[in-house]
Structures are given as C-alpha cells and as structure tokens.
Amino acid sequence: PLDLRTSGKDLVPNHLTYCIYNHCAIWDNQPELWPRSIRANGHLLLNNEKMSKSTGNFLTLSEAIEKYSADGVRFALADSGDGIDDANFTEKQADNGLLKLYNFIDFSKEMIANLDSLRSGSTNSFDDRVFENAINRGISQTEAHYKVMNFKEGLRTGFFEFQDARDKYRELSQSVGMHKDLVLKFIECQAI
C-alpha cells in the first residue's frame, strides 16, 4: 500500500487515476491495501514566469541550492504555493528567507549567550501569557497545516507569525525583560 502518491496536475486523468484503478483491481475488497492519499500539484514557475531553457528562465535544483543553500531553497519552495495552482519560486523570496533564517540564528545565539540576563521565575504577566499562547497556537496551527501538506500556510503560522509574536513580546516586555523559559521555548519550537 502507498501512504502517498504525488504527481503533477497534468497526470490526474492517467497516472493518478490508474494508480487507484490498479490497486482496487488487484486488492479487491482489501481497502487497507489501497493508496491512503493522492496529491496533485501544479507546475513550478520561476519569478512569475514559466521555466524554459530556450528563454533562459531556468534554474536547476543543484543551481538553486548552490546559490541559496538547501535551507533557502526549502524556504522559497514552501512559500511558493500549495495545491493544484502553479507554484511560484521567486529568487527574491529565497534571498529573503535565507536572511530571515540567519537573523533567527543570530537572535538565538545572542539569547543563549545572555540567558542569565533574562528574567526567570513566574510567567504570569499578561505579556508572558500572550506570548506563550501565541507559541502554543502557532504549534497547533502549523502541525495541522503540515499534516495536510499545506506548506505555505505552515510557513506562515510556523515562521512568520512566530517571528511577529516574538518581536511584539520583545517590544512589550522592554521594561521588565523577556522571560528565559519563554525565549527558550520560542527558540526550540522555531528551530524544529
């Protein structure tokens, strides 16, 4: 049995349909052996244009990784779109994603190096509770998005909104300081 069969939207009427037919025909009355899920995806655009070697608008996976790193490529691909619509890999987003990831790493290193300067004890302040709730909500929403393979939404809730919540918490807690446990929880959840 297949956990997941994935292919391009142009192959729905043949490859994906016949995948179901073949499993049903071979394992008649044994649905536990049939494909558990099927996903069709669109084509990949590069900077809002169809990729084509003849026009020069073309980027191989190896070239993209060399240029933006594996993490930058993952970031841009996750943000390029979900579902059957054509995904749009933008080089600007790969650059921005890489910069955001490096900023997160710098923040994490700075916080870990200065853990003793962060507040400890009770996390009962309003700002602490709001930040912790934002972290927990982000975890829950992101997990739900990843389970159904909505990577763009997962990136939104699991990275961008996490970053926004951290920035707001940092701003609101300037007078008393950020709480050590919450900062470590943020870093741990964001790094996953």
UniProtKB/TrEMBL annotation:
Q: What keywords tag this UniProt record? A: Aminoacyl-tRNA synthetase, ATP-binding, Ligase, Nucleotide-binding, Protein biosynthesis
Q: Which family does it belong to?
A: Belongs to the class-I aminoacyl-tRNA synthetase family.
UniProt superkingdom: Eukaryota
Pfam families listed in its UniProt record: tRNA-synt_1g
Q: Name a biological process GO annotation.
A: leucyl-tRNA aminoacylation
Q: What organism is this sequence from?
A: Medioppia subpectinata
UniProt GO MF annotations: ATP binding; leucine-tRNA ligase activity
> What's the name of the protein?
Methionyl/Leucyl tRNA synthetase domain-containing protein
